[in-house]
Specification:
By secondary structure, the chain is mainly α. Helix content is 81%, strand content 0%. The chain is elongated, with a radius of gyration of 30 Å.
Length: 208
């Protein structure tokens, strides 16, 4: 009876060894389990990567909408925007340049966010502009300047300084999150390329 039960095990081991030279039965099943585990991790990683890609897309869309709206609002009422800028604590010679430089800069940042190659630069510039604007608004909230109109244009100019600070802080957080997601995507791309080349090298080594 013992020999009858042992025969299938020896037969299976012999067959596996014949199909996979240099690999025993235990090694074969261990490799299979390891492969299945790696596939499961890869599926989870792929799902998380897709979620982060969608989140990054929404972040870029939110910032893109913000900059396009802000720029077009200024350009549509450029005379009002110039008058509001003239009331800010800025040198008089700087105002005529800022009237055009601010909306053009906002449109340029929006343009960078559209394309994948330049999206990271667009996110960093978005964060820089938002930090600059938020700092200016925070000083206004603290009463550093009295009775200054907001020079943002459109609906945003109707907000009070405190509401504007909350609005800017929200979009600053969005920009920070976008930068983090973009850096993770870049890092994941590099790791993925390294893993692919490593897997290819392993396969070629195994075939040899």
């Amino acid at each position: 009876m013992a020999s009858n039960f042992a025969l299938p095990g020896r037969y299976l081991s012999h067959k596996l060894s014949a199909e996979q030279p240099g690999i025993g039965t235990g090694q074969y099943y261990g490799s299979a389990r390891s492969s299945g585990s790696c596939q499961s991790v890869a599926i989870k990683g792929s799902s998380m990567k897709n979620t982060e890609k969608h989140l990054l897309m929404w972040v870029k869309l939110a910032l893109l909408t913000l900059w396009i709206y802000a720029a077009l609002s200024k350009l549509r009422e450029v005379e009002v925007f110039a008058a509001q800028l003239a009331l800010q604590p800025l040198p008089d010679w700087l105002v005529p340049y800022l009237v055009w430089a601010l909306p053009v800069t906002e449109l340029a940042v929006a343009g960078l966010l559209i394309f994948r190659r330049s999206a990271q630069a667009g996110l960093w510039l978005s964060l820089g502009l938002l930090l600059l604007f938020t700092g200016y608004v925070a000083l206004a909230v603290q009463g550093v300047w009295q009775d200054l109109p907001c020079a943002c244009g459109g609906v945003l100019s109707q907000l009070g300084w405190r509401e504007h600070l909350v609005f800017n802080l929200l979009f600053t957080a969005v920009a920070v999150y976008g930068v983090v997601l973009c850096k993770k995507e870049k890092g994941a791309g590099g790791i993925g390329r390294a893993a692919s080349s490593g897997a290819a090298a392993y396969q070629s080594g195994g075939n040899n």
